Amino acid sequence: MRISEKNTLEKIIIVGDRVLIKPKTARDQTKSGLYLPPGVQAKEKVQEGYIMKVGPGYPIPADYGFDEEPWGQEEEEVRYIPLQAKEGDLAIYLQRDAIEINYLGEKYFIVPQSAVLMLVREEDL
Which domain of life is it from (predicted)? Predict the structure, then answer.
């Protein structure tokens, strides 16, 4: 990941329980030495890539008390249950649920957390 790439992604806001993934560069060759055409790797059911941005999580409803009048309360901020994924994690995800976007000439995927099958994190849990 380049430093300039990180700065351009700061303008992006990911919504809800979604993550922004930059796909890992695909290998052109199989373990046995066969060369793959460009479209073969993209059609795989399971892909991997690095998480670049993470949404706030799953929204939870506001807890209104029965003894207080709802119109007299100030507007509450929305609360969220945070996601397991963090920026920099390597994610293994289902391709069918991913939405491909191009941002400043780079290819990214927006994936719901439910489509992420596994995370690989370099730091200790």
Answer: Bacteria
Give per-residue pLDDT as tens, 18-51. Answer: 999 999 876 555 666 666 665 555 567 889 999 9
Position 115, amino acid: A
Give the gyration radius of the chain's Cα atoms.
19
Per-residue confidence band for 72, with pLDDT thresholds at 50, 70 and 90? low
Q: Are 69 and 60 in contact (CB under 8 A)?
A: no
Q: Determine the Cα–Cα distance for residues 47 and 55; give it in Å rounded to an integer.
A: 20
- For residue 14, what are the contacts with CB-CB under 8 A and spacing of at least 6? 20, 53, 54, 55, 110
| Backbone angles phi and psi of 19, in degrees to 5 | -130, 150
DSSP string over 29-66: B-TTSPBPPHHHHHT-SEEEEEEEEE---EEE-----S
Assessment of whether the complete model's pTM goes beyond 0.90: no
CB of 110 closer than 8 Å to CB of 14: yes
Name the nearest CA neighbour of 58 among 118, 123, 112.
Answer: 112
